[in-house]
Write a structure and sequence with these properties.
The protein contains ten helices and 13 strands. With 333 residues, it is an alpha/beta fold.
């Protein structure tokens, strides 16, 4: 499509797409600054929204910022720009996680890749976390290959667990959920990021209507955002006995790699939406160092595990709240 003018409306639309990205406990730990003189967005991590108990390294925070960065790139390509991205452009400013310069179209070797990103734009507003049971349909091999290729484009590896490895990872998820529920500091931190929608209209965090049902079989596929508190009227449901779980990994484990993991994650999720899939996260084992180390078993693949995804066919989750664009975007002359 023809390139759009960089007026305030377009800038707000770009950031409006970016902030639909998933983030740990929907904390939305990002801010955007646009400088007209250089046609460049600066993406800054908002460390005041970190989680010292569950995410002391801020790995998860950076993954969320990377997902927002990917959405910004997709939105820019959709509007005819050619985004030029630099991760951590100034090492002395660790909160400046990326810059994105909006060049007016590519016209060169980057055109096919830009076109692929632009094609994902309709999925941005459809992507939601689904904490509901999925049906038993197996994801076709061709779709699995497309998801792996989406991650590879962002310098990450993505692979579904083999049947022989699934049970072991399910045990790690259940173990991590038990550790979470028996750790008062972690439960308090999680409770801080949940929202009672009868009390107020939320702008961040996980609202109670998005908790999803509990698993009637007692398995812990999803993080239980209710914690140890009972939610009156909450549904119970049987979840799939053999979920289709996938691991996303990076070759190294630095903040830049966490940003790459976030971009790969969101590219996988948007690709999944485009092929009729829904997704949920099972990140609990990644938040306990001793359990995350077990996920580096060579049988599960090489590299550092950054995300566990549950994918399949089923109901889409409800939309979760977002901060207003004006709260997270500053436009400079």
């Amino acid at each position: 499509m023809p390139v759009q003018p960089l007026d305030d409306t377009t800038l707000r639309e770009l950031v409006g797409d970016a902030v639909t990205a998933p983030s740990m406990h929907n904390a939305q730990p990002w801010r955007f600054l646009f400088r007209r003189s250089s046609r460049t967005f600066a993406l800054r991590a908002e460390f005041g929204r970190e989680m010292p108990e569950a995410d002391p390294s801020t790995r998860g925070l950076h993954v969320g910022c990377g997902a927002a960065l990917l959405n910004l790139r997709v939105s820019a390509c959709h509007r005819g720009f050619s985004p030029v991205t630099t991760l951590f452009p100034r090492p002395a400013e660790p909160d400046l996680v990326a810059t994105v310069r909006l060049d007016p179209g590519s016209g060169g070797p980057g055109v096919p890749r830009d076109a692929e990103l632009a094609a994902l734009h309709p999925a941005i507003r459809l992507r939601r976390t689904s904490r509901y049971p999925f049906d038993g349909r197996v994801i076709p091999g061709g779709v699995r290959a497309l998801l792996a290729e989406a991650a590879r484009r962002e310098e990450a590896a993505f692979a579904f667990l083999a049947p022989d490895d699934l049970d072991g990872v399910l045990v790690l998820i259940r173990d991590a959920e038990v550790l979470d529920l028996t750790d008062p500091a972690r439960e308090a931190e999680q409770r801080y990021w949940t929202r009672n929608t009868e009390a107020r209209i939320p702008v961040d965090g996980v609202p109670d209507y998005a908790f999803g049902p509990t698993d009637a079989s007692g398995r812990a596929l999803n993080r239980d955002f209710a914690g140890t508190e009972a939610v009156p009227g909450r549904d119970h449901a049987l979840f799939e006995a053999r979920p289709q779980l996938a691991l996303l990994r990076t070759g190294r484990d630095r903040p830049a790699d966490w940003m790459r993991a976030g971009q790969a994650l969101e590219r996988v999720l948007l690709t999944a939406v485009a092929h009729g899939l829904v997704a949920a996260f099972a990140t609990q084992p990644l938040e306990w160092p001793e359990l995350r180390r077990l996920l580096r078993d060579p049988a599960l693949g090489t590299g550092h595990p950054q995300m566990i995804l549950r994918l399949g066919y089923g109901p889409a989750g409800p939309p979760t709240p977002r901060r207003r664009v004006d709260e997270v975007l500053t436009i400079e002359p």
